[in-house]
Each structure stands twice: as structure tokens, then as C-alpha cells.
Design a protein that fits this description.
Length: 526
């Protein structure tokens, strides 16, 4: 009961923090980390120690899965080159740079375990990247690259971490090239195979499930089932979850009914909100635990921390500019994808926030090395924690200002509206043709009403091209219809209260009115 009470309290604090962040116009991950840091010093706050297995198997999979579900597969495929350069190349480069810096600063500590810490701090966080990038309003392609990087980079880092730990704890401190190659092939290749199998199996189950509630429950099971299957064969659970999420998300319109998609979308929004808030709050709450056994001299601690932070931040820029512009020396690449403005790699470079995966990986570092040899493990955990806090708070808080200062060209809303209107007109034409095929025998009033509905949707799409200077007919319709809905709700509520209708009638009426109002609000957002 006590553990359950603590979870509920932390969820309540995370919800309050997220609400406060929205009210103040701040980024929720940053405020929650700072809130956790402050709470960690209060004596009445329960002692919290993150279990790395809970994070990597219990929290990360659903967050990765929902992010992959919402990721556009065509956009991911179109940006695969920059995504892999960041998610694989940059992670490996950062790990080796940080590992080398740490090895030079800590003579006597084996290079393998220094490399392990490099792998720990190398991957930017999936949750932080998505939350911050979308809140800042970065151009769509940059958001796609950052989200794609954050979906894949954890797998690269965790495989490299596994290899480095194996080398550090093996007798003689050496792991052969064949061992490394086998680990990479099993982790990456096995993860892809398990992920594809997950698409086939759960895609089939989703298609066969007609009940929206059961479809929702199945969706919750998917990420955990895929992770457990991947871990069983020592493959990468991260890769498996991402592959399954991308596949299911891409095929979702063909696999689920409209009711299932609506309910699943609302369900995952809630899960994502609660888990993200809890994760960032728990990261901040770790401060007391991290500091407890830290016994390094202050001057030495500050020097090593600053050096590692500098290595983490600078290597991203050192990698990004050659990766961005050297590839354009190839004529085929340059023709297909012209070189972007220097502002793009600058903002991507500043968006390297670390998060809970880094802390969980640090807590998973071995207690001792080969032959029981000791190493400064608590210092390593502190360095990982410092990287998380500094990158998330400093870079995350200043990313909006950096984006504004660089004046990145936003996505063209007129072009988006024009494309949407053209496709909507094509869709309306298909709907009218289908209606004419099936209209025979139906009441004329019903057919005319459906024709009017199709025309109104086409008009709405073209009205969005007119700008926001005046209220469009569709906006006026939405405003007035919402007031009418409120009046209808009041009548049904009064009838229920007076006993004229049972509760079930009220629930059905409210459901229909709520769905209509929800649709109106979505149309207002465009």
C-alpha cells in the first residue's frame, strides 16, 4: 500500500507540474526535472531509487511505441540518411570521444569502462526530443530528423554499452572483434526480425478484433510483448519496439476501426502524458541518491564534470557539420537533397537533450570490473546525471530562444492548406461517386443531405486558404453549433435530474453531442 501511495503522489505531482508548465508557458520536461531536484532535498519526500530494468523494460517501450506509432514512415524513409548518421554514427563518435576524455582524466581506469560511460551519455532522449521539438515549433523536417534519431539511437548506445561492459568485466579486459560483430548482428538484426514479426502478428490480431476496448487492450500489450520476445533471444528490444510501432502506425487505417483508432489515440495520449511526467520528475528526484556516496574532491569533481559536458555538447556540432555538408559532395545526394542553411545543423546540434535512458544505463553499470577490480562507479553515475540535468535544463530551456534567433523558415501553412484542399477535393469527388452508385432507393432528403455534407467538407478545406483575418462560414457554423450543443446538453441534464429520462439515455445523448463537438473543435484547429 505504501509503494502504491507513493506512485499516486508522484503522478499527482507530475500532473500538477505539467499543468503549471502549460500555464507559465514553459516546457514541462524542464520544469518537472527542476521540481524533482528541489523535492529531492526535502526530508519528508520518500527516498526513490530508479531500477534500470524498470526503466528499460517497463517505461521506455510504451513511450517508444507511441512515438513510433505517430511517426510518418514515408518521412522517416525520406530522411533515413541524416537519421542514421545521427542515431548510429554520432552515438558511436560521442561514446569514443567521451570515453577517451575520461580515460585521460582518470589514469588507471580501464578504457573499456570509460567507453561504457561514453555509450551511456551518447544518446539524446526520445521523450525530451519529441516534447521539446514540437513545443518549440521547429520546421517539420527537423522534427522528423530529431524524432527519428531518438527512436533509433538508444539501440546503438545500449548495444555499445553491452559490448563495453563485456570487455570491462571479461578476464583480461578484452573482447574479440568476432564477439563484437556477433553482438551487433544479433542485437540489430534480431531486433528488426522480432519487430517485423510483431507487425505481422499484432497487425493480424488488430484486424480481427472488432471491439474497440479489446483493441485498446491489445495495443497496450504490444510493446511489452515485443520487448520480452527480443530480450529472450538477446536482441535489441528498442529496435523491435520501434520497427513494430512504425509498421503498425503506418498500417493503422487498414487494421483498426474508426472507434478503435479514436479510443486508442486518446488512451495513448493519457499514457504518454503520465509516463513522461513521471519519468522527468523521477530523474530530478535521483539527486539525493546520486550525491549520497559521492566522495570525490570538489575541484577534481568539477573539472571532470565540465570536461565530460564539453565533450558531449561539442562532439554533436563537430559531427553534424561534416555529416551535413560532406554528403552533398556526392552529386546524386546534392541533386536529390540540396544543402540546407547552416541554421539547420545549428539548431539540431543544440537539441541534444539527454534523459531517463542515460540515467538507467548508468545505474546498470557493473559494480566491479574483471577480477573484482574497483572503479569510481559513483562518479560515473554522477557524470551521467550531470549530463542529463545540464543538457535538459540549459539546452532545453534555451532551445526556443536559439530557434527564434536563427529565424528558421517555418513550414508554409498556405502550401499545407493548398495540398490538403486539393486532396480533400479528390476525396469528395470519390465520395460523391460512391454516393451516386448507392443512392438508388434511398430517400431523396437523405441523399441531398449527404451531398451537402460532402460539399461542406470541400468548402472547409478551401476556406483555410483565406487566412485568419475574418471568420469563415465554417468557423461561424462551428461557433454557433457549439452554443446549440451546450443548450441541448442542459435540456438532457435537466430531464435526467427530474426523472423524465434514465441515466442511460443521458449517456447516449452526451456521447453523440461530445463526438460532434470534438469534430467541430478539430476542424477549427485545421
Amino acid at each position: 500500500m505504501e509503494a502504491l501511495f507513493e506512485v499516486v503522489v508522484f503522478l499527482a505531482i507530475a500532473t500538477f507540474g505539467a499543468a503549471l508548465a502549460r500555464r507559465l508557458g514553459l516546457l514541462a520536461p524542464i520544469l518537472l526535472v527542476v521540481l524533482g531536484l528541489g523535492l529531492s532535498f526535502l526530508p519528508f519526500v520518500p527516498h526513490v531509487r530508479l531500477d534500470p530494468n524498470l526503466v528499460l523494460v517497463g517505461i521506455l517501450p510504451p513511450l517508444l511505441y507511441v512515438a513510433a506509432l505517430k511517426t510518418s514512415v514515408p518521412a522517416f524513409r525520406l530522411n533515413l540518411r541524416p537519421i542514421l548518421l545521427l542515431a548510429v554514427g554520432l552515438v558511436i563518435f560521442t561514446a569514443f570521444v567521451v570515453g577517451t576524455v575520461l580515460y585521460l582524466l582518470l589514469p588507471g581506469v580501464p578504457y573499456a569502462i570509460c567507453l561504457a560511460l561514453g555509450a551511456v551519455v551518447a544518446p539524446p532522449d526520445a521523450v525530451a526530443a519529441t516534447a521539446v521539438a514540437r513545443k518549440v515549433g521547429l520546421p517539420r523536417r527537423i522534427v522528423t530528423i530529431l524524432e527519428g534519431e531518438s527512436l533509433v539511437n538508444d539501440a546503438t548506445a545500449l548495444v555499445l554499452l553491452r559490448v563495453a561492459i563485456a570487455a570491462a568485466t571479461a578476464t583480461g579486459g578484452h573482447v574479440g572483434f568476432g564477439d563484437v560483430a556477433r553482438e551487433v548482428v544479433v542485437a540489430a538484426g534480431g531486433g528488426i526480425l522480432v519487430g517485423l514479426l510483431g507487425v505481422v502478428v499484432f497487425g493480424y490480431l488488430h484486424k480481427r478484433t472488432t471491439d474497440a476496448v479489446l483493441d485498446n487492450a491489445l495495443s497496450l500489450i504490444v510493446p511489452f510483448a515485443v520487448v520480452f520476445a527480443a530480450e529472450e533471444i538477446h536482441a535489441s528490444g528498442v529496435v523491435a519496439v520501434v520497427v513494430t510501432g512504425l509498421g503498425i502506425g503506418h498500417k493503422q487505417p487498414l487494421l483498426m476501426s474508426a472507434a478503435s483508432r479514436l479510443q486508442t489515440s486518446a488512451f495513448w495520449k493519457l499514457i504518454q502524458f503520465l509516463l513522461e511526467g513521471l519519468v522527468f520528475l523521477l530523474v530530478g528526484l535521483q539527486l539525493r541518491e546520486v550525491l549520497r556516496d559521492l566522495d570525490e574532491p570538489l575541484g577534481r569533481l568539477v573539472g571532470i564534470t565540465v570536461a565530460v559536458l564539453a565533450a558531449v555538447v561539442l562532439t554533436r556540432f563537430v559531427w553534424l557539420f561534416p555529416a551535413t555538408y560532406l554528403a552533398r559532395l556526392v552529386p546524386r545526394v546534392r541533386q536529390r537533397d540540396p544543402a540546407p542553411s547552416v541554421r539547420a545543423p545549428l539548431v539540431i546540434g543544440w537539441a541534444g537533450m539527454r534523459g531517463v535512458v542515460t540515467l538507467a544505463a548508468a545505474l546498470a553499470l557493473p559494480l566491479t570490473l574483471a577480477d573484482g577490480r574497483a572503479y569510481p562507479r559513483q562518479l560515473f553515475i554522477w557524470l551521467a546525471f550531470a549530463v542529463i540535468v545540464v543538457t535538459l535544463v540549459a539546452q532545453g530551456a534555451t532551445l526556443p530562444a536559439v530557434a527564434r534567433a536563427l529565424k528558421l523558415p517555418p513550414d508554409d501553412p498556405v502550401q499545407d492548406a493548398l495540398s490538403a484542399a486539393a486532396v480533400q477535393q479528390q476525396a469528395s469527388r470519390a465520395a460523391r461517386e460512391r454516393l451516386e452508385e448507392l443512392a438508388e432507393g434511398a430517400p431523396d432528403a437523405v441523399v441531398e443531405r449527404l451531398r451537402g455534407l460532402v460539399q461542406s467538407r470541400t468548402n472547409l478545406a478551401w476556406e483555410r486558404l483565406g487566412g485568419a483575418e475574418r471568420e469563415t462560414p465554417s468557423q461561424a457554423y462551428g461557433r454557433l453549433r457549439r452554443e446549440m450543443i451546450d443548450a441541448e446538453r442542459e435540456v438532457f441534464r435537466a430531464a435526467r435530474d427530474s426523472g423524465r429520462i434514465p441515466e442511460e439515455v443521458l449517456v447516449r445523448a452526451y456521447r453523440d453531442l461530445d463526438l460532434e463537438e470534438s469534430l467541430l473543435r478539430q476542424e477549427d484547429k485545421g
